[in-house]
Structure formats: structure tokens, C-alpha cells
Amino acid sequence: MADQVARAQVPERASSRLRSFAARGAITDYDGHRVFFIDEAARAKSEDARAVLFVHGFPGSAFDFAAMIDRIGEERRVLALDLLGFGLSDKPKTMGLSLMEQADLIELLLMRRGVGAVDIVAHDMGTSVALELCARRRLGLLSFEVGGVLFTNGSVFIQLSQLTPSQKLLRVPVIGPAFAKAASFTTFRAQIHRISGRRLSDEVLRDMFELMIASGGREVLPKLIGYVDERYRFADRWVGHLGELELPTSVVWGQRDRVAVPEIGEKLARALPDAHFVRLEDVGHFSPLEAPDELSAEVLALMARADRAPRSRRAE
């Protein structure tokens, strides 16, 4: 199936801002399932420059980056997608929904869109998807070039993570599906406020919740949380070779994060050979939503560093 402009099925309670964002996107196919993505040409700079790829986390979507996409889109082509099981993409019950599959999906999308080089912005679970792409690059298996990577608030060193009560419940057999089925907006809002620094509005949180449960999303939540186990299983592949990641990188960390605690960001910055480390003192876990301007500024700075880096450091 070729990519096509299509109206994604937007949740009934979506805000006008979410509806406008959805209207900018299109649909592609992955193994018979619909995947929502945004691909917008730069409004200012040369189209020959690397694109910027945004990779969201759990339980988020591309919409988490909406403000950043608008800002970075002034400079570069921007791409973002709702990974399978998330947001406006299909939520298949018959697939593993592994982070490996999500990396495959990204490679396929970039190939179909004719994108040969990107800078990556990764949040939360998306940081591990980005590290899988970097592992493929290290092994000479990646189908596109990476200029630089920005990591923000993701539990890449899972042993240091402080999972939320909801994440813990979702991982328990039998209990997880029952909890997902019964989860309410009130509970969701309380959990998000607990791990945020700057307070997010009810409109933002309602959009997040509705995107999470849309199209049978409750039923796949216990499967999606399996990414936590993958972080243990593939620890050597994803963080065991960080010292070999010869790329410009930025580690931008909300210091009031109670899940991906600040120690994780500090350890990541120390492990990477060319990391620029930034602390966001009053920001919590959801940095793309809480601090889109600060994060966008760091993305632009990373892009500039990657532009100056010798090509041999960006490509195998």
C-alpha cells in the first residue's frame, strides 16, 4: 500500500489543536496495519539538509512533539510517527509490538519517504528505539545515515528507573489487563502530574488519554509495557556499546523526573563520547510537552554540531 493522505480517526473528545495536527498527517501501511505519520518539508532551509525524526515514548504519540515540530520545521524537514499501538496508528492485538518492530517500522517509513539522513530526537521509550537504530548503525545494518541524536528523559538504564504504579500494575499477568480496562482519566491525570515538573493543562492531558485509549488502546497497553523487559534483555546491545557511538549527541534531562530519574541522564551523558549535557531544573518526565522551546533550542544546537562533524563520524 502506498502512503496516502487520509483523515486519521481522531478521538471524539479531541481538542481542536489535536484535530488540526491529525489533518496534517497521512497514513502508511505496515504489515497490513495503518500507521499515522507527519512528513513536512522545511519552511525555510534547503531540502538537501538532514531531516529531523521525532520518536515518542509510552504512552505518548507524535502529538507530544507538536510544538517542537512547528519550531524545528522552520529549519528542517520534520518527520514523526505514531508507533504501532500508539496514538492514531492501529493497535493490533496479534503482533508483538516489540521495540525491534518499531525500529523496523521507522526504517521502512524513511525508505518509503526517500529520507536518507536524519537527526533523531527521542523521548522516554523512544530513547531505546533510537538506541536500537544506533546498534544497527554500529553493525553496518542501518538503511539511513544519522547525523546526531538527542536523548531526553528515558529510562535507558532500566535498573535505575522508578516505574510508576500504573506501569508496575500493567506488567502483572491478569491484573494488568484488568487495570488497563478500568483506567480512568482521573487516575491518568494524577499519575502524569506526579511525574511532571511544569503543570500540564487538562486539555493536553485529555488529548494524551484519548489517544492512548483510542481504537482499542486499552487492550494493547499490557503488551506495550513489555518494552520494560526488553530494556533488561537487550541492555548490552543498547547501552553496552555507548562509548562506540561516534556521533554528536545531546542529553537533555528534566530534573524533576521521578521515573527516568536524573541519575540516568547523568550516566548516559558520561557514557557517550561526544555528549552535550543539559539539565532542565523545573521540568519533569514529559520534557517535549513541558519545555518545547528549551528542547527545540537544544535540537537546533545539535543540528549545528552535526553539520560541522566530519562525514566519517556520521556514516559507516
The unreliable regions are none
In total, how many beta strands? 8
Q: What is the N-to-C order of secondary-structure elements (H for helix, E for strand)?
A: HEEEHEHEHEHHHHHHHEHEHH
CATH topology descriptor: Rossmann fold
CATH class: Alpha Beta
Number of domains: 1
- Radius of gyration, in Å, reads 18 Å
The major sheet is characterized as: 8 strands, mixed
Strand order across the largest sheet: 1-2-4-3-5-6-7-8
Oligomer: single chain
Instruction: Classify the helix fraction into a percent range.
Output: 40-55%
Query: CATH homologous superfamily, by name?
Result: Alpha/Beta hydrolase fold, catalytic domain
Distance between the termini: 31 Å
Overall pLDDT metric: 94
Structural class: alpha/beta
> Which architecture would the CATH scheme give at its second level?
3-Layer(aba) Sandwich
As a percent range, the share of strand residues is 15-25%
- Total number of helices: 14
Topology:
Elements: H1 16-23, E1 26-30, E2 33-40, E3 51-55, H2 66-72, E4 78-81, H3 99-112, E5 117-123, H4 125-138, E6 145-152, H5 165-170, H6 175-182, H7 185-195, H8 202-213, H9 217-224, H10 227-233, H11 235-239, E7 249-254, H12 262-271, E8 275-280, H13 287-290, H14 292-308
Parallel strand pairs: 3-4, 3-5, 5-6, 6-7, 7-8
Antiparallel strand pairs: 1-2, 2-4
Helix pairs in contact: 2-14, 3-4, 6-9, 7-8
